[in-house]
Every structure is written in C-alpha cells, then in structure tokens.
# Entry
Amino acid sequence: MEPADPEQVIAIVARKIGEVRARSGKTQAAVAEALGTTTTNYQRIEAGVQNVTLRTLVRIANVVGVRVAEFFEEPEAPTPEAPQRRRGRPRKRTVAG
# Structure
C-alpha cells in the first residue's frame, strides 16, 4: 500500500466539503455563520488552504446534514493536484490607462 500524501488528502476533503455543501443548498456564508466563523475562513477550508480539524469537520457535517465519512469519499469531479501556495505579498495590479 502506497503512503498517502497529506496535501492530496486535504485537497480531496476540501473539494468534497464544497460539493456536499453545494448539494445541500447552503451558501458558504450560511455554513460559516452556523460554524461561528467568517466566510473568508470557511472559504479557506473549501480551498484546501486551511487544514480542517476533526472537530470542525464534524460540525460542518452536522450543518449540511451528512455523515463525516462522506467527506472522505472520492469527489464527483476530478481533484486537481494540490495547489502550490505562493508566499509573500501579492503583486500590485496596474490599471491600464
């Protein structure tokens, strides 16, 4: 058995959280509010940028009405490679004029 890549597992779970939430008909803002967090923080969970704890995963499952195990099933859409995080300050955008 090949060892699991943690970044790939995080990406799969994050994508599945987004799929399940969308299927439940809830918005990211509604789930964030139910969790007592900001929409931005919740978006980071679905993007796979924020590593979600089991406690938070259970709370998300309760909000969207599924079993926690569903988050570990294969996503319906293919999972892209784990995103490479860019470090540092974002580049300034210039306005064409």
